[in-house]
Amino acid sequence: MKRRRKLRWILPAAVLLAVLVLVGAAVARRTPTVRVAEVRQPLPGEQQTELSASGYVDSRRRSVIAPLIAGQLVEVTVEEGEAVRQGQVIARLDDRDARVVFDRAQAAVRSSEAQLAATEAQAVNAERTTQRTRNLARQGVIPRAQLQDVETAGRATQETLNQARAQLAVARRASEAARLQLAHTVVRAPFDGTVSKKLANEGAVLAPAALTGTNLGGIVELVDLHALEVEAEVSEEQLSRIHPGQPALIFLDALPERAFPGTATTVRPAIDRSKATATVLVRFQSVPQGALPDMGAKVSFLRQPLPPEALDAHGQPPRVPASAVVRDAEGSAVWVVRDGRLVRQPVLVGERVGDELSLKQGPGAGTQVVVAPDPKRMHDGRRVKVESGGG
């Protein structure tokens, strides 16, 4: 009886123990989730940075080039990416109507000049006649009334001469206007620059005052690549920390490995209501090769200028969060996540900078390492999941 009672307790206990062993094994095999951060390369001037802002590259001279008159485009002489000089011909409009108007105006000038010459000759003759008549009248050869008639005719001739001179002036002004209209059929570059966009092709009918349409009257967009600057957006509460002439570092998204010195030049006196930001213009000290308008950029406004040797980001060791470095009997190390598995990698740490440690030896920038690793869950080769939003 006692034996049966004993077996009755042993069997459930064995089953429970087996279940606990199976659950423990399943828990042990479960893939843990870890939080990661990337080993990063510190940016130049971090310790001297007053504040940072994002923006875009633009040019102080950037224009859509359009004709001053309406007309049909018959030739575009430049292509996108081509460098042009000030005064270089960019395009030509159909000039047939303008040329007819100019020729007519020139003919009117010649006609007015001939009319003026004839009137001047008549005026000279009238003046001589008036002088002779006055002499004869003084001698009593002719009556006074005849002298009055001759003087009246002379004054009329002088008025005709004045009219001829005025008509010639009007004809010359009209000719000048026609000449300008003809000149406007040739579109020239207003400054040295590079064609960034071609907006119209031969056959397009352009109107400079157009408010609709695909090209808005433009032929090309011209950009001066030697006058680039960054338009950085700074929140309004931070504006008091920016002043003209303040040194800055510019980081281009397209050239992430380099820092370019710059200077804050202007704070635009307007606030964007929707974003509560103001635009600060930051000029390159020397425009870098490869920089283009509309490139993304980040700007670090500095407390003081940096020496040239401090601009090299590769001159500083990479950094990791201090919580990622573990110290045990084997020394200092970090747990690297590589292809979804843990790899223990020894490191040689340098100075502490804020919440980070510099690495004299260890993984390179961009490597994912586990933050605040749990020693009980860290094993070489163990598969892990990266926490969503980590790194």
TrEMBL record:
Q: Where is the YknX-like C-terminal permuted SH3-like domain?
A: 320-386
Q: Which GO terms describe its molecular function?
A: efflux transmembrane transporter activity
The family classification in the record reads: Belongs to the membrane fusion protein (MFP) (TC 8.A.1) family.
Name the segments for region: Disordered.
Answer: 361-391
Q: Which UniProt keywords apply?
A: Coiled coil
* Coiled-coil zones: 102-129
Residues covered by the CusB-like beta-barrel domain: 230-301
- By what name is this protein known? Efflux RND transporter periplasmic adaptor subunit
Per the UniProt record, which residue ranges are transmembrane?
Answer: none
